[in-house]
Description:
Elements: E1 12-15, E2 24-26, E3 31-32, E4 35-36, E5 55-59, E6 64-69, E7 72-79, E8 86-89, E9 92-94, H1 102-109, E10 114-118, E11 121-128, E12 133-139, E13 147-152, H2 159-164
Amino acid sequence: MGLLSFLNTERQNFDVSAADSRLSVDLTKFIIGSTPLGKEPWDGDSFAKELEKEVTLKSDRSGYELGVKDGKLDHAFFTIKNFKGIFLVEEKSLVLSSTTNRKEIISIFGEPYWADIDDGEIILFYEYQESTIELQFEFPDGEHLEFITLMKGGILSKQEKRESYRVTKPWPPEKRQ
């Protein structure tokens, strides 16, 4: 879970137990609730009032963390075993659990731009919208899905991070069909 540690610097963190546990997350349109990633939180979303500039909203009980940067939704992080919301793919509900494996993820999302394998942990990186949005699926034991991260200007958008992950593919990635 160390990938997000850099996101918490210089941010106010708080836990909101009243946050909506039935959060919907569209993994193909990159929309959390009714707010697209990279846009100001929509007032109708249960989390909108809690998110202010440079703030991270974390609900361990509901299994998610949301963050804004410059007033716009910047990242979302989901702990699969605790997440009570709904994942969507192409407007259809997608059941993901701690039994979901990487072959299942690849069958749904296609081949990732990059797969990082380190000490048995596997992270699948998907790059979208001309590499301005990154979707990650993390398998800490190498087999079972435990975390999903969705972010603007993802980890691999930075050259030094691509070098640290030993990325050998050209950047930016070819446009996904």
